[in-house]
Amino acid sequence: MPNAHITGWGMAVPEKIMTNNDLSELVETNDEWIRERTGIRERRIARETEFTSTLAVDAAIRALKVANVRPTDLELIVCATSTPEYLFPATACLIQDQLGATKAGAFDLLAACSGFIYALNMAAQSIRSGSIKTALVIGSETLSRFVNWKDRNTCILFGDGAGAFVLQASERPGGVLSAVMHSDGSGGDLLTLPAGGSRYPINESTYSEGKHHIQMDGKEVFRFATRVMASATQEALDAAGLKVEDIRWVVPHQANIRIIEAAARGLKLPMERFIVNLDRYGNTSTASIPIAMVEAIEKGQIANGDKFVMVGFGAGLTWGALAAEWTGPIPSKGHVHPEQYRRLGRVRSLVRRVIRFIEGLLYRREL
Ligand code: UT7
Predict the structure, then answer these.
(1) CA–CA separation, 204 vs 21, rounded Å?
(2) Which atom of ligand 1 is nearest to the CA of 29?
(3) Is 113 tagged catalytic?
């Protein structure tokens, strides 16, 4: 059975920074409160021309470059996102088109902030089953578009960004070792984006009631998160036949420093073993774990042979953890230039639209 290795990684965040002081001009809050209660100092906010798919594509191109993999080698693209561009088409298909990944199947995965762990597990299982060899897994968000900037309970928490991993099959040991996924829909009302789906299609009344904004019972989500972070980590370790002492790093969902501290206490691990960067990005939902990983890799914190666990929780309720052994890129020859595929992808996409238009005209004449 082949193993699924993380061979490429990349992240992309908008340039625009919103500090806690900036927020205090919008709602009654202050830098001290936000830092003490959450650990967040600033977050990134997408410009009008930045979308969930464009951030994802920027991150993906960097990941493909590191892995030295062409977009046309991809067989699967999974985009975990809580803020898709449309209900359909899937944001993963927009990414597929922008990358020029002509041989890839593509779908979105919605498990809120646990989405990246779910997606990585799904892609790893496809590789381990032998059905595919190369996959792209992305967590990408433009949460700023759904935040109520008048609600201090939520607007202080979230930020925008994307992280991407390339997964490849290899017989060498390591890569994804185990994963656990959980859900409890009875807590679905604790964190919701009610309008825009089939239950509450957006109309004047959903709009005036603010149902198109993120709504959260922060205290209950906090309580749930502190309960599941350590237990899910332990479960993933048990499934991989590992002990807490065997792992070098825990990469938690970056929601609140106090939740991460509770997980550290639960696992009896020092905070130095936790990768934390929420002070600079806030909670970027599905993107938070890959962004934290990418920064740690690029700082040289994660070395070959290191075992680590990624652990997350989110709306649904969902939670999960994934244990892996870091192995880095698979040695390969030459250098691919994924950004050229992006440029060509634009032309290819246009040509396909023109052909579809002409075919449509001919088909109508035949009828
Ligand atoms: O990916 C999953 C996403 N969700 C989460 O991770 C959320 C988990 N929950 C949390 O992180 C925390 O519950 C929050 C950060 C949202 C809130 O922290 P808290 O310690 O639970 O605060 P609280 O809601 O109990 O509020 C404490 C006080 C209240 O004042 P009183 O009633 O004690 O006078 C609030 O009105 O702080 C007040 N408060 C604020 N003050 C300044 C609430 N939000 C703010 C604010 N600035 N932004």
Answers:
(1) 33
(2) 47
(3) yes
Q: Is 5 a catalytic residue?
A: no
Which ligand 1 atom lies nearest to the CA of residue 288? Answer: 1
Tell me whether residue 338 is in a domain: no
Ligand 1 mutation pick, 23, 222, 253, max ligand atoms within 8 A of CB: 222
Q: How many domains does the chain have?
A: 1
Output the pTM of the full model: 0.96
Confidence band (pLDDT; 50, 70, 90) for 116?
Answer: very high
Distance 269 CA to ligand 1 centre (A): 26
The pLDDT tens digits for 146-161 are 999 999 999 999 999 9
Position in ligand 1 atom list of the atom nearest CA 158: 3
Identify whether 176 is part of a domain. Answer: yes
Is residue 20 a contact partner of residue 29, using CB atoms and an 8 Å limit? yes
Ligand 1 within 6 A of CB of 227: no
What contacts 220, CB < 8 A, 6 or more positions away?
187, 190
Q: What is the pLDDT of residues 16-54, one digit of tens each?
A: 999 999 999 999 999 999 999 999 999 999 999 999 999
Q: What is the mean pLDDT of the chain?
A: 96
Instruction: Give residue 239's domain range.
Output: 3-325
Residue 182 appears among annotated catalytic residues? no
Q: In this predicted model, what pLDDT tens digit does every residue of 67-84 receive, in sequence order? A: 999 999 999 999 999 999
